[in-house]
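Hello,

Following up on my earlier ticket. Below are the two sequence lines again, exactly as submitted.
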Amino acid sequence: MNDFKLYAEANDWGLLVPEISLAFGALLLLCREALRKQGRESGGGLAFLLQGGLLVYFVARYLFFDPRPDSAGESAFNGMIQQSFPADVMRCFFLGCAFLTSLFANPGLRERRLPQAEFHALVSLAAASMMLLVQSNHFLMLFVSLETVAVCFYVLVSYHRGSPYSLEAGLKYLVFGALSSAILLFGIALLYGTAASWSGGTAPSDPLSFTMLEQFVAANSDSLAVRAGTAFVLAGLAFKLGAAPFQAWVPDVYQGAPTAVTAYLAVASKSAGFVVLFNLVTGPLFGLREFLIPLLSLVAIITILFGNLGALTQTNVKRLMGFSGVAHAGYLLVGIIAAIGMHPDVPEKSVFWAIVFYLLSYSLASYGVFGVMGVLAPTEDADQPRSLYSSLAQKQPFLAFTLAVGLGSLAGIPPLAGFIGKLLLFVVAFQAELYGLLAVMVMGVVIAIYYYFAWIRETVFPPLPSLDSSDKEPQVLWSPQFPSLLLACILGLLTLTTILLGFYQSSLGQSF
Amino acid sequence: MSDLIAAILLVPLCSAALILFFFRRDADTAAKLSVGASAVAMVLALFALFQNIEIDAARISWLKLGDFELSFGFLLNGDARLLLFVVTFVGFWIHVFSLGYMRDDPGKARFFGGLSVFMFSMLGIVVADNLAMLFVFWELVGFSSYLLIAHYFHTDEARAASKKALVINRLGDIGFLLGIVLTQVRFNTLEFAELEQAALAQPELLTAGLGFLLICGFVAKSAQFPLHVWLPDAMAGPTPVSALIHAATMVAAGIYLLVRIDFLLVQEVFSLIALLGGAMALYAGFCALVQRDVKKVLAYSTLSQLGYMSATVAIGMSGLAMFHLATHAFFKALLFLGAGSVILGCHHEQDVFRMGGLRKRMPWTSWTFLLGVLAISGVTFTSGFFSKDAMLLAAYEENLPVFVMFLVGALLTALYMGRLHWLIFHGESRSKAARQASESGLTIIAPLVALALLAVLGGFVSLWPESLSSVFVQELEHVHESTGNRLVMTFGALAWILGLWGSWNLYARTRDEDPLMKKAPVFFRLCESKLFFDEVYDFCIRRPLRHVAKVFEALELLFISGLMVRGTAGIVALLGLATSAVHRGGLRVYALWFVVGLVVLLGYALAWWEF
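Thanks for your patience. The regenerated structure is below:
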């Protein structure tokens, strides 16, 4: 009995309640699906209830009522997991993303008669693994959770299995995901190999742990193997972020995936990548900062320019969102560079807050936009030309307003949250004296306004009457449906938050 | 108590917002909302006044950059309380008047929304506790004035006038803004209370240059020389707007600004203002003498009275100026509203030579208008008498040239106001419209009566509540103790008696044209030309600027639009095409990207190692 009590006190599983409950929730969904009677479709209600309930509970618990007292955090599972307040914020963030994804995807799944329970189970599992990913303090943990996320996404991307676009996207994501995993693993192996055979200093007993690698890398920053390993790890992560030159898959996969999955991919998966990158470059790889800054700067510049220029000529809005997602990854990379290049007097937290706020504003705006896209999507989800949105403001003012606010926030127009997000990033970049990168960011933002506003214009202003009246095309009488009340409320809430965060956000940053 | 002030500010703003968003097509609701808002603001303001409150601590930070901070706060001293009362009280009656005057106007909702915006911004100026906040509201009144002048935007006159008012006010505001920036640089604060202390502590920081920049705002807003040309044209707006904005309140905001920042101004600046004010009192009187449009006469009269006020501030008697500001608001609003009633009665006829004989047909309007004329002429025991007499006395004591200008100005005032009254209400009706005129309704008569009461009784200091009269009562007693008291009062009485008598002789039996044109043609032409200000500005400023503008236009077309905008857009578009051309969808091509990327990263790692 005494032993049992000791065991209960010593175990760390209690720290992972959110992840475990999500995983069990996913299992529950699958079990109910297996036991349901033939011919009766199971809706998404249970999934929303699960994810929504967990979201409310954990946001309340981890962020408001019982926040972690010190951001130093605590280590668990022999250093596999490192928990901290910022990590808790991200865990709640992924839970929120999962909830929104499930909610947005459900009408589309029902319409196309695709199984719903499996979808929500996969979304929940992906969220659980991303939550583990941001807490991982060990390369093994990192790789396993990363792979779990990837496997869930392989299925999710090709979930519209009747659509060739979706299948193509799934295939591409699988091929490049596997490629990048291999590269990442190779990088890890290089680091592991050199660290394990390191004879100087206090030899790390576990060469994959971040804490021990940090000492090793700092002492061996001129070793070629360390540099090559780092470069490979970064390449593997850059795939997740959609950063150049590993961004080639992004437009195709974003276009083909079901719209809600695109949103999940664009927001949650990318954010997870950024948090991992942040943890790596400020943790184990910090000793290589002189090596990393030029490298990442180059990547950021190419990413920003490539994303924005590519988006410029797109007429399919899902592809456009793909390219613009690449551009946003570039801006966030600047934040990462600021984190390592920052003057030591400036606390690391302020940079992290800038990145988190950017992710938050980006996710609010993206989910708003993708939510509207999901409502308006035709049966072939991948086929969404910009002309689909023509005169939306006359037909569905609410959807048009949500879309316009979302796009405005993505473009960084004051007084929306996206503007403040960009401003915070600009400020940290300025503090870190990254003037060249700042200039590129400004250029990117200017280009971005063009393509976002072209979309808004299509939505708000009626098309010019054709001068050539002879070949009048038969007007497609298309009247968009109003979304369900729940969906409309959530969209309204996203829009409202986007507007409010533009006016007031400073006290949120104090928590870090 | 700052909540109360905030409520006074927010009520008109809410009304404006509601009208903008919900009642643009429902004109009657909009009108009721706006009048209701002004009534609530008045009641709250009266409540605040009888509480006799002083606020200078309530302040919220709005923008903070390092040491530099912009805040919003309220400073409610005596001057502010007096103006708060004048704005809300006169504003309320003018709102009521507008109900009748704008009853059938197609743009009624827009008009009332504009009035509410104006009330909000004007009250903001009154209670602002720092220059930055004052400037924000300063621009807002300019904006609402622009909106309301252009109410009849289908006429060329209103469009041109609104543009002129906006542009000329911008000119002044540039100077004002530079002055504010300079103040911030020198004193590192914009709060009035802190500025006053700083100015006392370091008088060497006050320079004439700073003063001249700061008074630019006053010169444009109060339409003083040389930026006075916009006010007569602004009469193209609806008459209630002319009464509220361009006579009683907004143009007086310039005077109020002078009073609020008088500790920042040095002697040279005051001398200039005194001179300009006195000259304006004279010049505008001459111009008013020959105008045919009833509203233009009143506009020039406003210019002249503003001249009186600014000169009085400049000779150090700002309390008296505030006193005259209040009485002037009463009788000038009354006169404008009376003119509005006449214009309505005569079916939008504004030419005084096509009126006449309206005394019998519009008795209420006629009698109240007469009271207004008596008050502005300074007839003994009306409100205008008390305030004007005090200003004459102050000028007599402090600055003799200004006194002479004031005195001649007073004579001219009685002359042109008498002329206006005789021409409109006496003699024969000189047009069909005048013969068919009829008295206006209750919503028009009631404000006239209310304002007439104040125009007559407003001069008795004992009738004022103490929280308002404390501003001017000391200075009033001080000037009445001076030696020239009796002499000046005699001169003042002579001025109005001569003026009214002269105008009766000249104009009471007029037929169709101005008798002055025959009797003194040179003088008449000179007055009518308004000393060629518009022409001189046209020749000296507009034409040369037009040539300069053409050169800039050509440069802009070539370099900015052509090379920079189109050029960069073209290059970016090409790059965009090239970028999307790489994403053709081939799996092998994408894989090649990966490999290239890897090789580059690895190469970089190697190259770094070499160093």
